[in-house]
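Hello again,

I reread your note about wanting to compare the complex against the isolated chains. To keep things tidy I'm splitting this into two emails, and this first one only covers the full assembly. Below are the input lines as submitted, including protein chains and any nucleic acid or small-molecule components. They are followed by the predicted structure of everything together. The single-chain runs will come separately.
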Amino acid sequence: MPPIETADQSTPESFEREALPHLDTCFRVACRLTGDPSRAEDLVQETMLKAFRAWHRFRPGTNARGWLLTILRNSFINQYRKQKREPIGVDIDAVDPMAIYRRVGQTDPEGEFFGKLIDRKVLDAIDKLAIEFREVLVLSDIEDLSYAEISSMLQIPIGTVKSRLFRARRQLQGQLYDHAVAMGYISPRERQLQ
Amino acid sequence: MTKVPSTVVDCDEALELLHEYLKQQLTPELVERVRAHIEMCRPCLSHSRFEANYLRMLEHKLKSITCPTESRERILTALHGEPPLS
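Full-complex prediction:
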């Protein structure tokens, strides 16, 4: 039976090898959670320090990225709760839930207008989503975590991950569509029936 | 001979499963059922391309963001200030 690798692997070298390559991922997620690069840096630093101190509890060969993002997300939620003192995930839900494709499918079936959007505008639109939608969207659609990983990280059922993602994508597409219309990248169309 | 999936999904089911299909989150059996539908249904194929472009755009625009060098250095300095791992 092979030996179980645990604490004896917890060297600074193994931390450097397994945790530090995920610094950029942590920074990207932190930027979207906090909406501010300087707060994101603080959050990543706190995450890395906590991870370093708890490195003996990490099982080598398991998912270091998921482990770090869980620490990051928990740290963020704790701070957020302290600062805001209000329930997390107020649902702005101002966006029509109809799929944007149904509005632009005739004029821009390939969704070329997405490519014309300025990066900053896409970031701003993501940052406007309620936190519970924003976090699943960032983890799934930008960082490519599986639904199962997100479910375990957020401690919510996979069905909830799916329904939040569904709404997050619709809300984001709605905002991007409105912006693209305002900028003249696409022509507004009368709403079509589903 | 190509194996034909036992049940092909309809348009509503295909669109409900579309993002999971594009994000490769479905079981191989469901992948085949959705693929079989999309390949023979032009409106769903078109919708699928639209959503795939949207997902590609998001990843392309956002994944290029990296931790700035100064931030990285400050974080590494903080880590080096930690007592050694026991």
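For quick reference: Residues 101-182 of chain A form a domain with the Arc Repressor Mutant, subunit A fold (CATH 1.10.10.10).

B.
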